[in-house]
Design goal:
Blueprint lengths: L4 E2 L10 H11 L11 H20 L7 E4 L2 H13 L6 E5 L4 H10 L5 E5 L9 H8 L5 E3 L13 H10 L4 E5 L11 H7 L3 E5 L10 E5 L25 H38 L3 E2 L10 E5 L5 H11 L1 E2 L15 H5 L4 H4 L3 E4 L6 H26 L1
Parallel strand pairs: 1-11, 3-4, 3-5, 5-6, 6-7
Antiparallel strand pairs: 2-8, 7-8, 9-10, 10-12
Length: 387
Amino acid sequence: MFRPVYLDHNATTPLDPVVLAAMLPWLESQFGNASSRHEYGRRARQAIDEARQQVAAAVNAHPTEVVFTSGGSEANNLFLKGAAASLKPGVLAVSAIEHPCVLKPAAQLTRQGWEVRIAAVDGKGRLNFENFAALLQSSPKLLSVMLANNETGVVQDVPALASASKAAGGGWFHTDAVQALGKLPIDFRVLNAAGVHAMTLSAHKAYGPKGAAALILDKRVELQPLIAGGGHERGLRSGTENVAAIVGFGVAAELAACRVAEVSDRWRAMQAKLEAGLAGLGARIFAAQAMRLPNTSYFAFPEIDGETLVGKLDREGFAVASGAACSSANPEPSHVLRAMGVAPEIARGAVRVSLGAANTDAEIEQFINALQVTVGRLQGLTAVVAS
């Protein structure tokens, strides 16, 4: 069976065999409902409690701060809409490069009287501190700034931003850390002390299963649930728990925290090798001078469409992405690149490579060789059409 080299780990990661082994009993013999009072239910409840402890330990949070959800999108919506429902409408501040599952609920809240303010980024994808400081003068009640961007990989100085918000008497501060788990060390106690009140994590970005995520929540924050019912997850997220996925999330989070230093060093070396090859081929690498995730490279070639290049590379045996997987149906240029001031004709050529634990130096060399041939062909076609 033909299996392309997988270079799209920011979209999703394969399930770690250790995680799968931990999940299997909860897909087979251990099928109890965690709300049941009999032995089957008690075992399921204990498994969820252990997973909650594992997720909390991975990011230096307390288990009571972990609220399990079905995904990062739900966790982000739970914070924004749940917090907004507990407050009188006011200013909601989000960065221009947030994931759609932050930007869209923010836009929905304008129909309930909220005013959305957008924090700008510079050409390197970093939040503009002067703009952010000016934005704080509007006294936002809710703020959301992602820790690491899913497209460019740019890492924001969230502690400094949260500290500035705290000093200005700002409101509840949330960070989407979905892309950071397993790629950067995460310490919620440090973030919380700086002024971060909530943080989103997701299992499937860190070799865990799809269908499990968490909102790490300072208990001082009052939220109204999105899903009302039997009162699961401290009444914040009702619904029978997906025990197998939650167990897998716990193991994946534990493994991610243990392995982060080792894999990030290896990825950083591979990223440098990849980007040297890209530069040699004439690619424009976005946010190259900013602090980024060690596994993420985002680039474009002049006059080459990103979707076309992704399709050609797929046929050559390399699975990469054009922008973000969650918005691949949107033909518009990346909103992240537009916020960075990248011209639309360049932004439409954007391609993302995101490395994973199984990738090798040999695969990077093979990718660069395939890219050279593919880009050469496409540039030749462009030259013919232009003539």
